[in-house]
Structure formats: structure tokens, C-alpha cells
Write a structure and sequence with these properties.
about 70 residues, alpha+beta, 3-stranded antiparallel beta sheet, 1 helix, about 60% strand
Length: about 70
């Protein structure tokens, strides 16, 4: 039996939601080991002068507690 824990992380990117998600996982992996999955809970974008300025994601990262 494995014990899993979930944390919520917010991240942004000037390129895409995918890159923002990758940034969230990369940042979390600096202090959390055994990451098993990421769930994109929500996506949003900041609009500046009629153009998308940044992409934002709210993700849930699941990791195993050993």
C-alpha cells in the first residue's frame, strides 16, 4: 500500500499552458520527491492590450510519501 499526498501549485508562462505546467512540476520537484502525477485544475490567461501576456495554471501534484 502506498501513501500519496497532493499539493496545489500555481505557475505561469509567457509561452503556453503546457510550459506553465512543466514549470510547476520542475519547481515542485526541487523539494518534493517521488512525484507521480500532475492534474491541471484550471487554466487562465492575462490579457494586455488585446493580446495574451501570460498563461496561468493551477495544478495538483501527487507524490508518494515513503
Amino acid at each position: 500500500m502506498a501513501v500519496l499526498k497532493v499539493i496545489e501549485v500555481l505557475a505561469d508562462s509567457s509561452k503556453s499552458w503546457e510550459e506553465a505546467t512543466k514549470k510547476a512540476v520542475a519547481h515542485a520537484s526541487k523539494s518534493v520527491k517521488y512525484i507521480k502525477s500532475v492534474f491541471v485544475q484550471s487554466q487562465s490567461a492575462v490579457v494586455d492590450d488585446g493580446k495574451i501576456a501570460s498563461f496561468r495554471v493551477n495544478v495538483k501534484i501527487t507524490f508518494e510519501v515513503k
